[in-house]
Write a structure and sequence with these properties.
single chain, mainly alpha, Growth Hormone, Chain: A, 2 domains, transmembrane, MFS_trans_sf, MFS_dom, MFS transporter
Length: about 500
């Protein structure tokens, strides 16, 4: 017979007591968490615009360039669930501060890199400590704010940071690279980390470990290995081919390990990812929404930047400024959506509307041409897409952690980040393959002899518009699938029996 998951008999646990709803420090704690989260989100994109300069400075090849991004994704994505459960077991203040210190140290080493191997090693370490930091930050937020109205405001701020951080990373990366050096795309993390470390050490109360908790070592090995294989397989497909053994073999092994992990979680007494966390429809819908949205959003950032810089001739700084309307609107809508819409209508309508707005923005972007103007071809779809992203990010964090007991907050938070990371990896591989095939097909159909520069430009435009059509399809499918999974109506309040774990109900009955 399958062993039942062991649940502590202490109800919400001691961590809730340290951060009462009336604690006057809670808004300062929110500022610390937001600074830490912004640092992690920025780092997902800030290095993209610095890569050409780093390549020239350190003299590494174009084939090696992908590893500056992939090294971070591999370590970050494969360790998220492990680090999320670790935060639950040993205390979130410890993992939060350790993640900040380690991330800052790795950033300093990366900025001072003298060769390619040193830079890649620093990026791996950034991913490791980012995986420790990200779920700790979100779970601290989930356990700090108890009042529903204040909780909505706090998650609104968090959602705004998550929604706008990627675009801000592009803007900041372009400015730092253009006016200072690519190394400052790494050094800038020290500013955020110093602020968050100081605030976290002074403001966060003692976080006790989960009573009776144990680390699921087989689960750690299976899920970390599975995520590592999947992220590597998708990354390899983006630069090579789906048919190479280094792509499909890793994908097959990754899927097999994740299937084994899922089967093991229902049998072990101390699961790494307790089934009670993911079997709730709203939480599962939030995780799936993050994954699908991450896959589709990749087309907005990467291929739109390609279009603006390669085809329209925008500089890195101008490209970042061109993204500002989307960044500003996504952050504003995320904040308002969490405060105003979530308590009234719940996550389901927000996800459906957000996905459909993103799909509409992608369809609008298919009208771009070689000489399109910013106001006529880009501003409108960027604003529509920004509103859609804001609605999605406005519900993501609150829904993905709603109703979990404090001793599961870390792994629930990690599940959100895992979905985002895996979605981005899938989007990278899929959309890069689609773009390359579309460009090659266009040249084969329209060239007679050596392609002219004009024809190469048209082939690039065709590849971008094809990607945007695919993104529109991804978002439209997300509206249907995620909309069907999420429950209608507002989220049930934490005090209702429907969101209590069995041990909590027993404690309340006594």
């Amino acid at each position: 017979m399958a062993a039942r998951s062991a649940l502590p008999a202490t109800g919400p646990g001691p961590e809730a007591a340290g951060t009462a709803a009336g604690d006057p420090r809670r808004w300062l704690i929110l500022a610390v968490i937001a600074a830490a989260q912004l640092m992690v989100v920025l780092d997902l994109t800030v290095m993209n615009l610095a890569l050409p300069s780093a390549q020239r400075a350190l003299n590494f090849t174009a084939a090696d360039r992908q590893w500056v991004v992939t090294a971070y994704a591999l370590s970050f994505g494969s360790l998220l669930l492990f680090c999320g459960r670790l935060a639950d077991l040993i205390g979130r203040k410890v993992t939060f501060l350790t993640g900040l210190v380690g991330f800052a140290a790795a950033s300093a080493v990366g900025g001072a890199s003298v060769d390619f191997s040193m830079l890649v090693t620093a990026r791996v370490c950034q991913g490791v400590f980012g995986a420790l930091l990200a779920p700790s930050a979100l779970s601290l937020l989930a356990t700090t704010f108890k009042d529903p109205k204040e909780r909505a405001k706090a998650f609104g701020v968090y959602g705004a940071v998550a929604a706008a951080g990627g675009g801000l990373g592009l803007l900041l990366g372009g400015a730092l690279t253009s006016y200072l050096s690519w190394r400052w795309c790494m050094y800038v993390n020290l500013v955020f980390a110093a602020t968050a470390i100081t605030g976290g050490a002074l403001l966060l109360g003692r976080q006790h470990r989960t009573p009776g908790g144990r680390l699921d070592v087989p689960g750690v090995v299976a899920v970390s290995g599975g995520m590592l294989c999947l992220v590597y397989g998708f990354s390899n497909a983006a630069t090579h081919s789906w048919h190479t053994p280094s792509t499909w073999s890793f994908l097959v092994v990754g899927v097999a390990l994740l299937i084994a992990f899922a089967a093991w979680q229902s049998r072990t007494a101390h699961p790494l990812l307790p089934p009670r966390v993911v079997l709730d429809r709203n939480r599962a819908g939030a995780y799936l929404t993050v994954l699908i949205s991450g896959a589709g959003t990749f087309g907005v950032f990467l291929f739109l930047i390609y279009y603006m810089q390669v085809t329209l001739g925008y500089s890195a700084v101008v490209s970042g400024l061109a993204m500002l309307p989307m960044v500003a609107l996504s952050g504003t809508v995320a904040n308002l959506g969490n405060i105003r819409l979530m308590p009234r209508i719940g996550p389901k309508p927000m996800v459906i509307a957000g996905m459909l707005l993103n799909a509409a923005g992608m369809v609008w972007l298919t009208r771009i041409g070689v000489h399109s103007g910013y106001a006529s071809a880009l501003l409108g779809p960027l604003m529509v897409t920004g509103a859609g992203m804001g609605l999605i990010f406005g519900m993501m964090a609150a829904t993905g952690t709603f109703g979990v007991a404090p001793y599961d907050a870390g792994v629930a938070s990690a599940s959100i980040n895992t979905g985002q990371q895996l979605g981005g990896s899938i989007g990278t591989a899929l959309l890069n393959t689609v773009a390359a095939s579309a460009a090659a097909g266009y040249l084969a159909d329209h060239s007679y002899g050596r392609p002219t520069p004009r024809l190469v430009q048209l082939a690039a435009i065709h590849s971008y518009t094809t990607v945007f059509w695919w993104c529109a399809g991804i978002f439209a499918a997300g509206a249907v699938i995620c909309g069907a999974l999420l429950r209608p109506g507002p989220l049930t309040r934490p005090g209702d029996a429907t969101v209590r774990e069995p041990s909590e109900r027993a404690t309340a009955a006594r």
